[in-house]
Amino acid sequence: MLKEERQKFILDQVHLHHRVLLNDLAEALEVSIDTVRRDVKELDKEKKLKKVHGGATSFGFMNFSKEDGNTYLLSKKIKIAEKTVSLLSEGQVILMSGGTTNLEVAKMIPRKFPLTVFTPSLHIAVQLLELPEVEVFFLGGKLQHESKFAIGGTVVNALNRLKVDLCILGTGYLDAEAGLTEFDWEVIQVKQAMIQAAKRTIILSVSDKLHSVQKYRTCSLTEVNTLVTELDPMDSKLDAFRPFHLKIV
User: Which of helix, strand or coil describes residue 55?
Assistant: First the structure.
């Protein structure tokens, strides 16, 4: 594979998953970690991604801006956000994780729509403050530098005392058999506590993330009530998820 092809693949993976590991990239590309490391260094120097310890992140993952027009797969995420907002009811108490798709949901909530929202995502909390009818509770803890997502025992303990109407989870990796997976163990602890704190859970995923798997499981699909993608609910790409009796939107 040519260097240009490798680097395009790396950028696609970074933009899709926001953060990727060098080991995973090397395995997928069937090249050495040193080769991937050199590619990532070049892309970092060209300011196309940010090199971090053991991997790389997208700039959109690290920086919050309401005017940011560079969100990867934005049209798909807007479609998902439209579907998700249609599932909300006035007066609900909800949990929202982070991620660019959830950020589009936060942007799309009507200004006169009363909600109470708990979130460990600083990005989501700041966006929701634009809405006068939304009461925002930031679940503070140790903030991750790249994602601005709070982790740790303080967040998990706070979640253990909640029972909300709905949890809206963004996805890192989603597969019918493996369920919802991530590579960050501390993020998983928070997301698992979010699921346990909610009566119902909705997961949001662009179709590009379907059938992708990481090392650690957040939950199986039996723990999820609704899957929202940009696809038509009857699209054959979603067939593998139907046996779990999910509501597919």
Answer: strand
